[in-house]
């Protein structure tokens, strides 16, 4: 069963604190449609457009040929919910002030909190401008009571059953068989997929993209432009791909358990058999190919409806993950190990006229720039304003004022990068890592002990971005297990 809330646009005049769609002036009819597609935990370097040669992503490769490709895109904040507060509001979540945990959630980390009811959203701003706003997602953290991310959307649909979503009961399934097959969140994974050998449609990405295509069909005759925000959880853990995708990457000789996730730790401290890590990567790659396959279907639907040349499209991720492929052999995405596997994300922007199609940009850009670009295309802004940069002038070949550096916060850790250095530590400046981006192999050596001036520069700029101080929050023992190195 899926949770659906489809309301006619005219009923939303009060909820959007503005005129209903039916009363908007005719200017909205000439605006571009806007499609935002987010894929959770998708590493930049696992995609063909970013040089990968073994993970099959033909549809994203085609999309990249028609899009501006940003090679230095990074999250404004981490992890899942802080990033999405940015994407839905257009304003910085960093440095996580006024954090208040939400009851009934299963994650308690600084910045992990609902959309504020006191500030405007991107969808509300676009709704006032005459857009039909749709939201489709299978990200289970959106579903927690009180998260408040559906504000401003005329249609929204939550697709149930991803990862640890509190959806189905594991009671009917053989627990001994689950323990024999899986390491990690096996009971909920099996329950949510409806058994041990599910077909592709049991997974949430196909159903999420199908719901997005249904939105396009239902609004095909609508004269108002649409804003469709699609957010799919895979390739986030749990890492088990449908059989046909897993078969593309599996080692036939592997007979071990399926690790649905890897420890948020190092392989030195929490050893995992190398073959099991490789098998997890095979499932991860399979999930990426599944996402790519369904993105192809969504792109095909746009073309079928004649909307592809009138739609501005964004594709991105919130962050990546690690498979022990860094100096400390970190796996997962612990807060205190902000290596490129976590921080480098894909960002493709396809102009309706294919301007800058296939062109690669080196400017430092952020998840914060997506809502700024969406709002610029629509000619609107949330009432509290926007903190990001509009990327569309870059596609048009116009002047663009880039960033000298970037900052980010994840739990009680911070990150900084400019053209020369890559820095991360705790908010108390402990466990410092500093890498020279001008070196031939930047991440082989932590140069912090011999580069005090660069450490001081990173810390000063982090504090400047934070308004002078980084609010500290105590973490419980269970939080420290989820986010080590803190």
What are the main properties of this structure?
486 residues, alpha/beta, Alkaline Phosphatase, subunit A, 9-stranded mixed sheet, 4-stranded antiparallel sheet, 13 helices, disordered N terminus, disordered C terminus
Report what the structure shows:
With 486 residues, the chain is of the alpha/beta class. The protein has one domain (3-401): Alkaline Phosphatase, subunit A, CATH 3.40.720.10. The protein contains 13 helices and 18 strands. The protein has helices at residues 58-65, 80-89, 122-128, 175-181, 186-193, 204-218, 243-246, 274-304, 340-343, 369-378, 392-395, 452-465, 477-482, and strands at 3-6, 33-39, 68-74, 132-137, 155-158, 182-183, 226-232, 258-259, 265-266, 311-316, 322-323, 330-332, 347-350, 360-366, 405-410, 413-418, 421-426, 433-436. Strands 1-5-4-7-2-10-13-3-14 form a 9-stranded mixed beta sheet, sandwiched between helices. A 4-stranded antiparallel beta sheet has the order 15-16-17-18, with helices on one face. Helix 6 (204-218) packs parallel to helix 8 (274-304). The longest helix has 31 residues, at 274-304. The radius of gyration is 22 Å and the shape is globular. The chain starts with a strand and ends with a helix. Residues 1-26 and 477-486 have low confidence and may be disordered.
């Amino acid at each position: 069963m899926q949770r659906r809330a489809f309301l006619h646009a005219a009923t939303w005049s009060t909820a959007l604190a503005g005129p209903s769609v039916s009363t908007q002036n005719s200017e909205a009819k000439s605006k571009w449609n806007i499609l935002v597609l987010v894929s959770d935990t998708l590493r930049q370097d696992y995609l063909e457009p970013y040089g990968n040669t073994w993970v099959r992503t033909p549809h994203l490769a085609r999309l990249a040929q028609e899009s501006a490709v940003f090679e230095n895109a990074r999250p404004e904040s981490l992890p899942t919910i802080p990033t999405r507060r940015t994407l839905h509001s257009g304003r910085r979540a960093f440095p996580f002030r006024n954090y208040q945990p939400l009851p009934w959630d299963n994650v308690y980390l600084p910045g992990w909190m609902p959309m504020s009811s006191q500030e405007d959203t991107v969808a509300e701003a676009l709704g006032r401008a005459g857009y039909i706003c749709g939201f489709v997602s299978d990200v289970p953290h959106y579903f927690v009571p009180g998260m408040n991310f559906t504000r401003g959307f005329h249609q929204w649909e939550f697709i149930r059953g991803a990862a640890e979503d509190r959806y189905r009961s594991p009671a009917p399934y053989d627990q001994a068989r689950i323990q024999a097959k899986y390491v990690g969140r096996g009971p909920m994974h099996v329950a949510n997929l409806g058994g041990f050998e599910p077909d592709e449609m049991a997974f949430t990405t196909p159903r999420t993209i199908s719901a997005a295509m249904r939105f396009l069909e239902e609004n095909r005759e609508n004269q108002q432009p649409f804003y469709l925000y699609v957010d799919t959880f895979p390739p986030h853990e749990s890492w088990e791909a449908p059989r046909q995708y897993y078969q593309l990457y599996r080692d036939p000789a592997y007979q071990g358990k399926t690790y649905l996730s890897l420890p948020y730790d190092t392989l030195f401290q929490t050893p995992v058999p190398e073959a099991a890590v490789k098998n997890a990567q095979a499932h991860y790659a399979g999930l990426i190919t599944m996402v790519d396959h369904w993105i192809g279907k969504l792109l095909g639907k746009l073309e079928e409806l004649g909307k592809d040349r009138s739609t501005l499209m964004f594709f991105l991720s919130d962050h990546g993950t690690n498979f022990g492929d860094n100096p400390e052999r970190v796996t997962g995405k612990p807060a205190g190990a902000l290596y490129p596997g976590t921080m480098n994300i894909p960002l493709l922007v396809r102009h309706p006229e294919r301007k800058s199609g296939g062109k690669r940009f080196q400017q430092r850009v952020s998840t914060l720039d997506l809502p700024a670009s969406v709002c610029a295309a629509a000619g609107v802004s949330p009432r509290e304003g926007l903190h990001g940069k509009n990327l569309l002038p870059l596609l048009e070949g116009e002047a663009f004022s880039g960033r000298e550096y970037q900052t980010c916060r994840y739990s009680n850790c911070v990150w900084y990068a400019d053209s020369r250095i890559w820095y991360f530590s705790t908010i108390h400046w402990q466990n410092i890592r500093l890498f020279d981006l001008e070196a031939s192999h930047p991440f082989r050596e932590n140069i912090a002990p011999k580069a005090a001036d660069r450490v001081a520069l990173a810390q000063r700029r982090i504090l400047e971005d934070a308004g002078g101080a980084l609010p500290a929050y105590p973490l419980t023992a269970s939080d420290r297990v989820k986010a080590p190195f803190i």
